Amino acid sequence: MKTKHALAAALTLVLAGGLASCADSGGTEANGGNAATNCTNTIEKKDLPVVTMWAWYPNMELVVDNFNKASDDVQVCWTNAGQGGDEYDKFQTAITAGTGAPDVIMIEADRIPTFQVQNAIVDIAAFGYDDVKDNYSEGAWKDVSVGEGVYGVPVDGGPMGMIYRKDIFDTYGITPPTTWAEYEAAAQKVKDAGGPLFGDLGANVPAVMMALQYQNGAQPFTYDSADPEKISINLNDDASKEVLDYWDGLVEKGLVGTQDQFTPEYIAGVIGGDYATYISAAWAPGYLTGAGVGEGEDAGVWATAPLPQWDASDPTYVNWGGSAFSVTSQASNPELAAKVAFGVYADEASLTDGWQNQVIFPLNLTALNSPDFENYEVPFFGGQLANKEVYVPAANGYTGMTYTPFGAYYFDAFNEQLASINEGSVSGSEAADGLQESVVKYAEEQGFTVE
């Protein structure tokens, strides 16, 4: 049986791939500029210690300036080392090289276990967590935790809902479905009347299917950093199969499309009225607006409703997306770095700028439950109180998810199975069985004992 150190080494090799050969012996400049002399922002209080940070939020310069102006203990030197995968590639290179990482790094919640198992980020529970834990929900904390350890400070999330076109619903006499059974019935009604597709099963959004499986009571992974050699993988239980069989049925009946999302083709279809609904998260209005949705012929037609439930009598709230600030194991002063992670993007001015400009959906409860945020008339939804009606209740009701330390492989394997469903080569249940077999095999190859 492999030790945690060996597991981390094995995962590092797999995740880094060819990146290790790109590591520069100097580390600092090659990996995104982590030195305090490479700040994008200007540090005014030059006598204070400096913590370096990588983050890609669009308003990060404002956020860092707000923090630095208010702090008399530490200053932040911020660099945008790339968004998502680009940043992770540079971080992985720094992990492999043993140098070049920042003190604090922005990481999406589902990637935290991947870096935690490599000992690349540190548990910050002892560095101020008790002082701020009541500022966030239990679900928000669970998403950034691995077992009992806290490996990030939540900033934004993606409570899920159902975005829909009012014009299509009005034309075909549809009211927002409250259950997935009602969703299918409405889709069939629209199709029978010659209307558009009701939604879309994109093979490239496995996180949506994972969330819907959670909503149906599935527990895909059980993993605890206190016992890092073991992991429970349940990807083909009855709850998981029910979700995939349901969506397989929608595809087979021609009720939903099979276009990959986040593509020009999909956006063209959204704008053109090819889809009546978009199952997504609270960050979607920002994404859609940036993609040109709601500015032309489809202006003023969008609304949102709570996500349909598998069991309306026992509603379950789920999440898609969200990021946090983690302290890296290369931080020279982890306690000071944690002070930054806990404090940056936590002030009222930064949070307000973030949600008003659709940069974040705030998880800090002072913003999430504020009257200004709840009663905000969201422009994309024609002034609908979308936060109050849909997203705030979903965020407050969310209890968190357990992510896997090999999330990249899991999502890639899930992509392949969803593509097979869309091609008609496997059923939903068969896709679940194939996913279970693939992921278990991979986990065992990495040295995990699968239970």
UniProtKB/TrEMBL annotation:
Entry-linked SUPFAM superfamilies: Periplasmic binding protein-like II
Protein's name according to its UniProt entry: Extracellular solute-binding protein
One family name in Pfam for this protein: SBP_bac_1
Record organism: Microbacterium croceum
The UniProt record lists the keyword Signal: yes
Chain segments annotated as transmembrane: none
InterPro entries recorded: Bact_solute-bd_prot1, SBP
Keywords: Signal
Signal peptide: 1-22
